[in-house]
Design brief:
With 262 residues, the chain is of the alpha/beta class. The protein has one domain: 3-Layer(aba) Sandwich (Rossmann fold). Helices cover 35% and strands 21% of the residues. Strands 1, 2, 3, 4, 5, 6, 7 and 8 form an eight-stranded mixed beta sheet that branches. Helix 6 links the parallel strand 2 and strand 3. Helix 7 crosses helix 9. It starts with a helix and ends with a strand. About 6% of the residues have low confidence. Belongs to the methyltransferase superfamily. Arsenite methyltransferase family. This is Arsenite methyltransferase. It is an enzyme of class 2 (transferase).
Length: 262
Amino acid sequence: MDNVQKDTIRNNVRGRYKQVAIKEISIKSSCCGSSDSASFDEVSAKMGYSAEELASVPQGANLGLGCGNPQAIAALKPGEVVLDLGSGAGFDCFLASRQVGSEGLVIGVDMTTEMVTKARQNASKGQFTNTEFRLGEIEHLPVANDTVDAIMSNCVINLSPDKQQVFHEAFRVLKSGGRLAISDVVMTAEMPPEIRADIDATYSGCISGASSIEELERYLQQAGFANISITAKDESKLYINEWLPGADIDQYIVSAIIQAIK
């Protein structure tokens, strides 16, 4: 994939998520989102968020964009620095901020200006003083070397047209012993050409951008990570088909937990 193709994908994704931020709706009939704005909490509950967690964030922070609950597997500790790749309106960041406490810091990075603005507004509304949101691409993180204890991400890395670079950047900013705690979709079977050919239903809808478990393991190994663990969540098939109705996409992708150590 050349740079022009990569930019086309990024611009398509950025445009779609700009509309999500502005309208406070999720991406209809696609992955990483509910088609009904009133059901965001219901969708998130299916992905492992508790009622307490859902009630603890500012209104408008949860846009129903995800495929799991990464902060639940991150084993966050008070005082840690946490980075969220593709932080959206700040939902997972605000949950993580409660775990790291006032001595910790949560940094959200998103490439969509409107999402960063919305997240900052939510942080102010909820008086989250240990969170900050930065505009940037996850392939080129606005974060210093060796400064992060844990990296989270929720159904975002599949959107990147250069996943190897994402993991190189993650390795760069993590401290020695730092860890990845990622929820994302993985490909379990080759997709039909008609699905792969539709960029709106694929990259910006989190479908054809999915990598196989073997590919992800290779990306992580080449970036330098150890203790790599990728666990598919078969129960996610219960909601995956809602992302692209009629396409039976649960035959091709599934949500997974991705963990590794620097």
